[in-house]
Amino acid sequence: MSWFGRIASCLCLFLTYVYKDVGGWHYLDARGTDGPFFIPGIGAHGNFKLASGCVNVRETAGLSGRVLSCIGTGAGTAVTVDGGPNYVDQKILWHLQGLAGWRMTF
Fold it and tell me: In terms of Cα–Cα distance, which of 1, 13, 84 is closest to 42?
């Protein structure tokens, strides 16, 4: 589920992650960003950039995976999603081609 729109001078994207099981639909997570933005999906590619700090890329899906790198600093990091989403440790993770690792929800 997603919403894309303009609020004042912000070109924004809001994503809501839900899942369905025998008990029905359940809320999992939500994210919002101002443009430019990257929408994850198999084969999606773009530049992942943070205003400050970085995000860990892990060897295996989950918080216990060894940290391979930290992306999103400076001019950003070019990424291509080639796997996922996987739901592990109450997090949604996407596999990043070339970085050979898993990253939490974009």
Answer: 84
